[in-house]
């Protein structure tokens, strides 16, 4: 249960001035997204474009760095998704959007730009973005996670009139090597085993009505392409 405040306009239309309230089409409803959906599409496209070299590499006992990197990202995102299914099973007030991805170009003098998020998690404790890291083979920084969190903050602030704070998370999957290089302010670093209990222990910040309004905006693909 969220805390009760009077910060949200009375009607959904007032709270979502830039969106049409009502039933979403299948194409616009991001709750239909599967974990790592856009990454799987990228890997299929890469395989089609580089099939011959991939086959030759396997025959020689080698691997393609780009293909391997995509496969590792997919494994990490799926690992986090398994933990989040456990979260929503135990705490139904939490919601998860997978593969929030757009190719909106950056506008000169404005924010905007592409969005590439493994998961967006919404609950009574607010909104969280997740960058999954699977058994890292190189340095990991918090830059991409921090930028993703700030981008989501901008998008949801522009789409709703709900005062919501977005927190960025870096989640390490199937590894004991949990290390982030460089600045990590505004970013929480966790393992996949820590994720569910950490989220469930956060202090409530949104009322039930605020959460419903933010979720309605976040699940609408049009929110992320403005």
**Mean pLDDT level:** 87
Helical fraction equals: 25-40%
Largest sheet: 5 strands, mixed
Count of DSSP H/I helices: 7
Strand content: 15-25%
The overall number of domains is 1
Order of helices and strands: HHHHEEEHEEHH
Radius of gyration: 19 Å
Low-confidence stretches: 1-6
Find the count of extended strands (DSSP E, 2+ residues): 5
What does the overall shape look like? globular
If strands are numbered along the chain, what order do they take across the biggest sheet? 1-2-3-4-5
Structural class: alpha/beta
Distance linking N and C termini: 31 Å
Report on the architecture of this protein.
The protein has 226 residues and is α/β, with parallel strands linked by helices. The protein has one domain (28-225). Helices cover 39% and strands 17% of the residues. Residues 1-6 have low confidence and may be disordered.
């Amino acid at each position: 249960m969220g805390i009760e405040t009077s910060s949200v306009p009375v009607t959904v239309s007032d709270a979502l001035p830039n969106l049409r309230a009502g039933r979403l089409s299948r194409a616009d409803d991001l709750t239909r997204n599967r974990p790592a959906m856009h990454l799987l599409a990228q890997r299929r496209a890469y395989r089609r474009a580089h099939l011959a070299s991939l086959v030759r590499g396997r025959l020689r006992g080698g691997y393609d760095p780009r293909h391997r990197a995509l496969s590792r990202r997919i494994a990490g995102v799926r690992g986090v998704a398994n933990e989040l299914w456990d979260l929503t099973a135990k705490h139904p007030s939490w919601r998860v959007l997978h593969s929030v991805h757009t190719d909106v170009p950056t506008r000169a003098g404005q924010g905007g730009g592409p969005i590439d998020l493994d998961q967006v998690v919404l609950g009574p404790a607010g909104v969280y973005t997740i960058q999954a890291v699977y058994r890292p083979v190189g340095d990991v920084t918090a830059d991409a996670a921090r930028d993703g969190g700030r981008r989501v903050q901008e998008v949801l602030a522009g789409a709703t009139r709900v005062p919501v704070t977005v927190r960025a998370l870096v989640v390490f999957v199937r590894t004991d090597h949990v290390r982030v290089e460089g600045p990590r302010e505004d970013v929480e670093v966790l393992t996949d085993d820590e994720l569910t209990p950490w989220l469930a222990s956060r202090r409530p910040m949104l009322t039930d009505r605020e959460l419903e309004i933010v979720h309605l905006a976040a699940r609408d693909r049009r929110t992320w392409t403005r």
